[in-house]
């Protein structure tokens, strides 16, 4: 029997992590068309609202049901404005490990939202889901993503040479692929200092009943 992640809503002091909803389509498409997202991820460019809707209504639910991972919207608690996403992928239920990635919208950067969302997800995985390992991979030149990994307590395990594609946008708007290294990071339950106290500070988590 395939294990799956539950429908979940995770609350922190400033954020709520929840399933993506069709109301997120315009903001999601705008976020994915950002130059930094295009440079460091494999997100297709340009990214249309139809593509965003397909991800929300079909790709994300299929990913969860098949047990491969989980896609979460990151929204501000007070305004409900979409400020990013957290994605779990390549989940191994026997090993209890998964790969985590995150994207923060250009209008929400510099607020510490990536660290807050990633840390809350890690506490949920290690606590309620009893996972034993979270892995992250960052392109060698993506210093912002590396800083997030370091701040939440990840350990750098090494380099996968020539293992990823990054993109550069020319003045005419076209994108060019270039090869780069991946830095591999891991986070284990014991890497989180004061885990119980930090989990309490996030506000906890609850079932989410409105999954599409």
Automatic annotation (TrEMBL):
One of its GO terms (cellular component) is cytoplasm. Keywords: Transferase. One of its GO terms (molecular function) is protein-N-terminal-alanine acetyltransferase activity. Pfam families: Acetyltransf_3. The keyword Cell cycle does not apply. PANTHER family: ACETYLTRANSFERASE, RIBOSOMAL-PROTEIN-SERINE ACETYLTRANSFERASE. This is Acetyltransferase. It comes from Streptomyces yokosukanensis.
């Amino acid at each position: 029997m395939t294990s799956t992640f539950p429908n979940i809503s995770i609350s922190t002091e400033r954020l709520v992590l929840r399933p993506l909803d069709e109301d997120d389509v315009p903001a999601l498409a705008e976020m994915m068309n950002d130059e930094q997202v295009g440079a460091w991820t494999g997100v297709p460019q340009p990214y249309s609202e139809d593509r965003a809707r397909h991800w929300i209504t079909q790709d994300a639910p299929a990913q969860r049901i098949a047990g491969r991972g989980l896609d979460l919207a990151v929204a501000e608690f007070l305004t409900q404005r979409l400020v990013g996403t957290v994605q779990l992928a390549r989940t191994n239920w026997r090993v209890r490990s998964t790969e985590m990635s995150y994207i923060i919208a250009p209008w929400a950067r510099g607020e510490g939202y990536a660290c807050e969302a990633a840390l809350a997800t890690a506490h949920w995985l290690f606590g309620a889901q009893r996972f034993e390992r979270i892995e992250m991979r960052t392109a060698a030149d993506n210093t912002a993503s590396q800083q997030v990994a370091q701040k939440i307590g990840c350990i750098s395990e090494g380099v996968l040479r020539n293992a990823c594609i990054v993109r550069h946008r020319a003045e005419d708007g076209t994108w060019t692929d270039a090869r780069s290294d991946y830095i591999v990071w891991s986070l284990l339950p014991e890497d989180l200092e004061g885990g119980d106290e930090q989990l309490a500070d996030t506000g906890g988590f609850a079932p989410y009943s409105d999954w599409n």
